[in-house]
Amino acid sequence: MTNDYKDMLVAAKTEKKQAEVERCKRELKKADKRISDLTKILNKLYENVALEKITEERYQTMAPGYEREQEMLKAQREKLVAEISRSEEVHENIEKFLPVIWKYTNIRELNAHVFNELIEKIVVHEKVVEEDGTKSQRVDIYYKFIGCVNLKRAGFYDDGEVRVQSMQA
Known about the structure:
alpha+beta, 60% helix, disordered C terminus
């Protein structure tokens, strides 16, 4: 059961991110290779100037372009590493959340202690009145460590909504 719940959380929090992370990893690999290549090119270019195989003027024409490309790739690399790190943090947060939620799999009553341990915040949106007179109100529950889980994307509800009937006095 823990693995099913974990898989649901991972799917809900990383559904679109997985392809993006794989793309980031491929781009990171390409950027690292190109940075390494540019370092070799710049070293070789400098050696050629030192050995007078090319002129200083030619060096001054070629080197700045390579150096700009290398700096641009280093900045891109930092962004890619940060994006990959954020995605890995999602998995770590799920690992932290599982022991907490596992303690409460069979709770009968939501008391203040359980609520405070599981829930970070609840956002209640404005009430919507449809043309036919039906009313609905969206409520987002943000769990500790993992944030808001969209159960529709995780495959738990057909339309992603939980309907609660209220009794009117």
